[in-house]
Amino acid sequence: MKPIHFILLLLMGVLQNISLVAQIPIPSNGKIIRHENFFSAYVTSRNIDVWLPDNYSPSSKYAVLYMQDGQMLFDSTVTWNKQEWGVDETISQLLHQNKIQNCIVVGIWNGGLNRHTEYFPQKPFESLSQAQQEAVYKASRSSGQSIFGGKYIISDKYLHFLTRELKPFIDSAYSTRVDREHTFIAGSSMGALISMYALCEYPQIFGGAACLSTHWPGIFTSENNPIPDAFIAYMNKNLPSPLQHRIYFDYGSETLDAMYAPFQAKADSILIKKGYTEKHWMTKYWPGQDHSERSWKSRLSVPLLFLLGK
User: Fold this and answer.
1) Is the whole model's pTM more than 0.90, yes or no?
2) Which of 215, 266, 304, 307 pairs as cysteine with 189 (C-beta 3.0–4.6 A)?
3) Using CA atoms, how far apart are residues 305 and 298, in angstroms rounded to an integer?
4) Per-domain residue ranges for the chain?
């Protein structure tokens, strides 16, 4: 390699590292500790942003909320669309009002180009016929861009990462309540799907899930799409007991959320069939809200109160 090429590559690496450091969110409340390029034997390395409340103390114990798409949670100045969930503001306000239990938030960055393959529930996908699976892999966005980019669904490996690597690390590095009753998971869109899937696959670990704007179609069309029914059938078989678990769903009426009402109704019927009542399950319809961090921010207090409320 020519020296000039080596120098350019080195410079690019330095600039990328500077960019990563610059992207550390600055919360309005509490503080964030970044675990940069957290290694996994199952999925690609990624940043983990842990939010601690203002009153965090190692002498106390805290519930843990694991959240998907961690780069979108705390600071709109470092997100691609200049929107955020406002997690730190909402949780801090609820804590100040003594409405929820003490908690920390683990913001798990998504895998970038691997996001769809990591968040798409694997066992429902594998229940499809070979022809249906091939059609799903060939699906594209409205722009014509491939959804999966030639990559295979690996959400089971992603859940191995969460349960076998990330949770043990968090429980060792922070003062957490490690039991199921104090361990929750949340996300929106595809992140809602993987949160639902995590609750079903690991009911001994997660006590509740918040699924905002759940992307039941899996791809970007509902016509001749077998995916929603596969998800519903999976829930019918694998939903954990309502006595030890809580689950929250919601959807709006605009943009992608306009697709979700009939699929959410099917999911709700399964929850009723499985014995879920208002004590352990909530589905909320938010007319006028769309598929965006801005909308999820505006209603975040509702699922937080449902899962973490005193």
Assistant:
1) yes
2) 215
3) 14
4) 29-308
